[in-house]
Amino acid sequence: MTKHEPDLNLIFQALCDPTRRAMLARLAQGPLAVSELALPTGFALPTVMRHLSVLERADLVHSEKTGRTRTCRNNPVALVATLDWMVQQRALWEQRTDRLEAYVATLMKSESP
């Protein structure tokens, strides 16, 4: 893995939590202050900050502090590697199921009278 290549393990770990996925969905609409991002979760700010740190480690979210306000924004580029991996896996499994289907069809033809 190159230095700039996203770590899929960190990305999938971040995406496995519904709270973090909800945060990403809200951030997809535009940058938000952490306090605004925390409102719908019902969690205390330290809990929200832990979720955000997981998202930042995975490079899914970037934040910056201006004065007393920390603003977060999505980094959609990080999801490109995830999408690429999923497309590769889908192609692999489609090829396998196509071969299985062809094999079963061959078996059925050879068994028919």
Task: Give the overall shape, derived from the CA principal axes.
Answer: elongated
- The CATH homologous superfamily of the largest domain corresponds to Winged helix-like DNA-binding domain superfamily/Winged helix DNA-binding domain
First-to-last CA distance: 55 Å
Query: Which strands sit side by side, in order, in the main sheet?
Result: 1-3-2
Reading off the top of the CATH hierarchy, the class of the largest domain is best stated as Mainly Alpha
What CATH calls the topology of the largest domain is Arc Repressor Mutant, subunit A
Q: How many whole angstroms does the radius of gyration measure?
A: 21 Å
Could you tell me the mean pLDDT? 90
CATH architecture of the largest domain: Orthogonal Bundle
Decide which structural class fits the backbone.
alpha+beta
- How much strand? 5-15%
Q: Point out poorly predicted stretches.
A: none
* H-E string: HHEHHEEH
Largest sheet: 3 strands, antiparallel
Q: Give me the number of helical elements.
A: 5
For the secondary structure, the number of strands is 3
- The helicity comes to 55-70%
